[in-house]
Write a structure and sequence with these properties.
It is a single chain. By secondary structure, this protein is an alpha/beta fold. It folds into 2 domains: 225 residues, Alpha-Beta Complex (Spore Coat Polysaccharide Biosynthesis Protein SpsA, Chain A); 129 residues, no CATH class. Helix content is 46%, strand content 17%. The protein is built from 14 helices and 10 strands. Strands 1, 2, 3, 4, 5, 6, 7, 8, 9 and 10 form a 10-stranded mixed sheet that branches. Strand 1, helix 1 and strand 2 form a beta-alpha-beta unit. It starts with a strand and ends with a helix.
Length: 370
């Protein structure tokens, strides 16, 4: 049995795919790593790259499937994985050569169902810390209070974040495969981007022991061509978001969050839903007229009684970028909220690949926590 199966979903990843896979093949325990590559219907040269690497690397298990999205690709990878532990890697990211060895050894030493290392950003050949955790072990309720709580209330004044940045990323983690099988934990989505959040939440809510590492092992490559930066439009966004919210609230109830915490989370997420709705309405893939976009924003705000949940925005740590959006929302100025957000996002997408922009973002984040 392999020690670790690393699952890489691929879709039109020709630019960085070989570099990502070769980094993993050079890992310190490469002979004990199974690389599960799932090609989700790519239309570029990803297929050719995968076949070339497969021909000289017996540890690679490769499968091509019709395009079904990231959730189906990751779940297919879970079906094919044979390792004692599971890790995930995005097609354009980079790992340290000893990341999987350190995670594996610590998971074995602790007998933990899952654990995670710290992360960094990779920008134009340079690296910098992003999500840095302390070396800790979490047992039973510690997982709820010191992992799930700061993730659930990330970006608010209510979370137990210990001054750390908490992002719900799956690629920094190692998971016991039998634990996933026993609990039937798979990827699912309701909107279009929250599958890793739900997966992580589900794992953490069922685990009895976990750990974090100060070691930075995973680097997120800032790539403007990635799907992360393709400003997509999501139809019926509010209805899908409510299903996502119901799913999370059910998990919070199951693991013993207080009624007050659950209510706070629900109201804050409704604030987030409105902000994201404004964001998605600005997508170039949205073919509605300007008037129709504003009408839809106003409809959702009214249906969900925005005057009630916007009162909870006082608990949100608002960056200088978000303060105008919430101000305009609180004053019923939905058109100004839309115009401002639309302008900001176009500028941000152009600047995010530059190191100085990341420095500014990190500085704003630190100042907002003071």
């Amino acid at each position: 049995m392999y020690k670790v199966s690393v699952i890489i979903p691929v879709y039109n990843g020709e630019k960085y795919l070989a570099d990502t896979i070769n980094h993993i093949l050079k890992c310190t325990i490469s002979d004990d790593i199974q690389l599960v590559v799932v090609n989700d219907g790519s239309r570029d040269n990803s297929e050719k790259i995968c076949q070339e690497l497969l021909a000289c690397n017996p540890n690679i298990k490769y499968v091509y499937k019709e395009n079904g999205g990231i959730v189906s690709a990751r779940n297919k990878g879970l079906e094919l994985a044979e390792g004692k532990y599971i890790c995930f890697c995005d097609q354009d990211d980079i790992v340290e050569n000893n990341m999987y060895e350190l995670l594996y050894n610590e998971a074995e030493r602790q007998g933990a169902e899952f654990g995670f290392c710290s992360t960094g950003k990779y920008i134009d050949g340079k690296i910098e810390p992003f999500e840095v955790h302390a070396d800790r072990v979490y047992v039973e309720s510690d997982i709820r209070d010191k992992i799930i709580n700061p993730i659930a209330f990330n970006g608010t004044k209510l979370g137990n974040d210990n001054g750390e940045r908490w992002i719900c990323s799956i690629w920094k983690c190692i998971y016991n495969r039998q634990f996933l099988l026993d609990n039937n934990i798979k990827f699912r989505k309701f909107v279009n981007y929250e599958d890793d959040y739900l997966f992580f939440f589900d794992v953490a809510s069922r685990a009895h022991k976990s750990f974090s590492m100060n070691f930075i092992g995973y680097y997120w490559r800032i790539n403007n061509q990635s799907e992360t930066y393709n400003w997509k439009y999501i139809d019926e966004f509010d209805a899908k978001y409510m299903l996502f919210l119901e799913d999370v609230l059910a998990m919070m109830k199951r693991i013993g969050f207080s009624e007050e915490d659950i209510r706070n989370y629900q109201m804050i997420e409704l604030c987030t839903m409105m902000k994201r709705l404004i964001y998605f309405e600005g997508s170039k893939f949205n073919h509605k007229s300007y008037a129709q976009r504003i009408a839809n924003i106003k409809r959702v705000a009214k249906e969900h009684n925005y005057k009630e949940f916007l009162g909870y925005s006082k608990h949100i740590i608002l960056s200088p970028r978000n303060k105008p959006v919430y101000f305009f929302m609180s004053k019923d100025m939905w058109n100004l909220a839309y115009i401002y957000n639309n302008f900001y996002e176009k500028i941000r997408i152009r600047l995010i690949k530059y190191k100085f922009w990341t420095g500014i973002s990190n500085w704003i984040y630190r100042k907002s926590k003071e």
